[in-house]
Fold these 2 entries.
Entry 1:
Amino acid sequence: MQWIEYARQRLAVRRRRTNVWGALLDRQDILVAALALQKNGAARVMVFERQQAPEGLVDVSKRDDWLVQTLRGLGSHLPAPLRTMALALDDERCRQGLLAHGGQLDAQQLQAEVQLEAAAAWGVAPEEVGFDFHAEANAVRWAACLREDLQQWRGHARSAGWQLPVVEPSEQAAQRAALHLRGDSRGHWADSPQDWQFSPVPERALADVDWPQLQAGALWSPLVACGAALGVLL
Amino acid sequence: MTAPALNLLRYPRRGPVWGTLRWRSLLLAGLLGALLGGFWAAGQHWRLAQLRAQGAQLQMQVQDRLRQQSAAAALRAQVQLQQAVQTRAQDWRQQQAQGLRLHAALDEQSHALGLRVMRWQNDGQQLLLQGWLPRSQDVPALLSALSAAGSPLWTVHSLASPAAPGQDRREAGVDVLLQALWSATESAAPERGKAGP
């Protein structure tokens, strides 16, 4: 129903968040960054932490317990409305692709095609993937992860008192952060992430960034965590 | 970045067609439910009104029945009271007639036999008559005369000679104490009283 979506968007605008956390979930650690919206519209990094899981924690349930405890500890000093976190997934947990189409499919057919494509990429049933897509000229760019993982992360976040409104690919979050990061030199970027500030509008174009080099460097993970939070703030 | 951001929480979600169908189904079910509920409520309301009218009618019938029972009970009590009054009056009349006859007989025997009535007692169950006769052989005649007057059967309770040693009496005679028992019918409403000579 379009009016429900409209009302939801209106409510979302009224409840615009000023503090958002972003996280990059890895197997043995979680990288989190908290961004706060400034009066001038820029976002500033308030917290940047890497929480390392204890060594030898191989059991999945124990690792989940550790993750819940970590999230609960991160948000223990925050009021409930400020406990909002966006999660970015690396390539191991999120698969992406391009689906070519002739432009003759309607939205429903396109969604079904993408779901089938994502399920085939994961090798699971169509109802077992969570996905999103946007159409380009003659192709559809999609990203998908396992729905079981999504429900698990949402369950962890909910049990720790966090809202989880966004789960996105890490590339998307890193691109957002890199385009909005203030400072015109790579040397400036190399400063501590706690000193980063992000402008409300892009500072540069996609072509201005050497993405392979950036992804291979140490700034990638901080950019992902900050970009995830920035996606909810902007 | 011009492309919209991907959010893996967005899909899968219910399609608009399914949603429309669902909403239409829900709306239809709601309307149907409201319609059925309205019919049911109207039926219950009508049924309730009918039951209330029936209850009021029954209540009126109960009140009428109670009034009739009360009137019948009052009538029965009145009839019983009238019967009791009639019985009592009849007893009174009978005893009054017997009393009159007895007085007449006593008056007659006082002239015929010289009877003097000393004491006459009626306690409702028996009559006691104490008198004096000049001649003791007139006692059976007195008994038969009193019995013939319609009073209960008289018997002699005691006879005594009034002449005592040292007592000066010019007339001989006998003191007689007579007794008569009221019959069962007559004793239902006894007359209690005393009368002297």
Note: DSSP finds two helices and five strands in chain B.
Entry 2:
Amino acid sequence: MTDHVIQIRGLRKAYRGFTLKDIDLDIPRGYVTGLIGPNGAGKTTLIKLIMNLVRRDAGQIKVFGLDNLADETTVKSRIGFIYDEPPFYLDATLRNSARAIAPFYSRWSDERFRELAGRFGLPLGKKFKALSHGMKMKFALAVALSHDADLLLMDEPTAGLDLAFRRELLDELTGMLQDEQKSVLFSTHITSDLERIADHVMYIRDGAIVFTLPKEELRERWGVVRADGLSVARLPAAIVKGRRQKPYGVEALVSDAAAAREVLGEGAVVDRATFDEVIVFMSRGSDHVEAA
Amino acid sequence: MLKLLRKDLILNGKVIGATYLFWSVLWLGFPIRDYGEKLSPAMWAGMVSVACAFLPVMMIGREDKFKAAALACSLPVTRKDIVLSRYAGGWLVALVAAAVAVAAMLLLSSWGVVMLAGPVTMVPVVATVVMGIVLALMMPLALRFGIAGVIGILVALQLLGVVTLLAGAMFGGGDFIRVALRGIASVVTRTHEALGPTGLAAASVAAVLALNIASCRLSILVYRRQDF
């Protein structure tokens, strides 16, 4: 059995003004992978390509070791999918929407759905359009979790949710992953969500994957150097991922904090990089120099 | 495919039922109001069938309105399954709706509330042919462009009618539409003479079936290429 729940090779999708460029990536099985990147970087397109909601121009996508087009029905029956804007009929009650969807999944559990609906406080007799954004996301989540999916694919699932429910959702996902065969891939802008549950972080920018790393590696190895410009210029280019000018000197994001310390010695400050810092630096590119 | 049909009926059933009841008042009410005037069963069935064929198109329009097509496409089904279920469900809904309307009309006729001007033997064929033509034309556009596609073809047909009338008036040659309708009537008459009433019915239904198969294939092709 493959160790990767999703394997992508040479994936390409071109829109007018944007291209997802020859993506190669492997998403490990049994882990939570967080997909981050600026708006318009290609996160939603990538997730939709996996679900065959948009047509690819080239490449191959394997999910559970199966081709996502040739074995579309089998693949999708094992995926719980959550959109950033859940596409349910606005004038249907939650009960009817669930009743319409349930037969498509052989592992659907009414008991589980009712339990989640009760826990999330979902009014099953209400129409979808009467719900707030948070409640809509809760309903989408209850549906996605009620058929014992092996993979949860979520596009911005926590956007617009209050802090308490975000915590609840993240705890739910953590609980689901007690079974090590289950996997989660979710896109987000909220770095604290990544910090909380992601095992791997995948960064996408301008339609290309910039890096995929275990979160711990990112947290322990990456750093932010605060020093004068000349010192930063001595750093090996390969480890400098971004720079910005500050009143006191230069800040640089480095992928190897230990190597930076070795080069710069005692005179420089090298801190651990937070996720927010990684995103801010990376979204501007390695050559960007930000004015103070 | 049955699961998709069930899903569409659960999510659209009430609205479609309410629309159908409203239309029923119109298509049964007018002949009752015009009591004393004889009603051509075939003509009436043709008009009712157009309305019945719009019921499934309406279902697709609703899906487009709610941007819910992505829901169907994210379920464990193929795009081909979705299109096939739309055609099967479309025919099912339209046929049941037309059959109920015809049965109601026959009931009213048997009570003497409505007077029919001729036999009702051609009603099933007329209903099937009209429904088939409307569905075959509308479905690919509705599936690809949603409500905009349906409105687009209706506007296009209106414009075609206006252009045809203007062209007839400006360049002579009479009313093109009337000429076209006479041509169709002539083909039907000749087929009737050659094959008899049963042969004509079979040929018409076969032609409509072929048209729908072609329409369905086109829809599958188009729907597979669509991004959501």
Note: Chain B has a mean pLDDT of 88.
